[in-house]
Amino acid sequence: MHEYIRTGELLIRPFQEKDAESFERNVLQDATLASFFDGESGEDYISARLAYRNQPRFYDCVILLGKQEEAIGEINAACIPKGMADIGYVIASPYRSRGYGRAALKAWIGYLFEEGIDVIYGACRKGNSASIALMRHAGMEPCRQVPKKVRMRENEEDLIYFRIGKKTEGKAGKMHA
Fold first, then answer.
1. Quick check: helix, strand or coil at residue 122?
2. Is the distance from CB of 161 to CB of 126 less than 8 angstroms?
3. Ordered alpha helix ranges (H), 115-166
C-alpha cells in the first residue's frame, strides 16, 4: 500500500517509525485494549508492522488524528483469494464515540473495494456492542457463515461475523496517491 486515505480529521496510512511514541501512549497502553496487545513497546510493535509491507495483499495501517498526526488506532486487512478480505481495527478508548471509528472503517472499506476486493468480512466478540454498532453503521450486515480461509484460528462461538459486498457499499473516504 503506497497510498494514504484522508477522511475528515483522519489520516490512514502504513505505519512509520515516527508513529511509535504516540501509538504506544494512546493505543498500546490503553487498558481496554490489553487483550489485543502483548506489552510490546511502540518501537517493537511498529517494527513488526513494517515487516508486513513486504507481504502481498496484507495491509496494516495506523489511524492518525489531526495535523499533529496523533496515533489513535490501527486498521488492517488480510486479502485472500477470490476477492475476499478479513478486516480488523482498534480505536483507543479516549477517541471512541466521536465518529473516528466509523469514518475510518467506511474509508477503509471504500479503499479495499477500489483495490479489487469484492467481499469484506469482519468479526467481533458477541458482547462488544460498540463494534457491532460500528460495523452496522459502515453498512456491514451480520452473516452466519464465513469461508474457512477467512477465519481459522479464533473461537468461533465467541464471535459474531459481518460482511459487506461491493453492491452494498456506503460512501467512502477519498484515496490519495
1. strand
2. no
3. 129-137
- Euclidean distance between CA atoms 62 and 51, whole angstroms: 14
Select from 76, 75, 65 the least CA-distant residue to 26.
65
Sign of CA dihedral 37, 125, 71, 163: positive
**Each residue's pLDDT tens digit, 48-76:** 888 877 777 788 999 999 999 999 999 99
Q: How many CA atoms lie within 13 A of 163 on its CB side?
A: 16
Q: How confident is the model at residue 174, as a pLDDT?
A: 40
CATH H-level, domain 4-176: superfamily: Gcn5-related N-acetyltransferase (GNAT) (3.40.630.30)
Please write the tens of the pLDDT for every residue from 116-163. Answer: 999 999 998 888 999 999 999 999 999 977 766 666 555 567 788 899
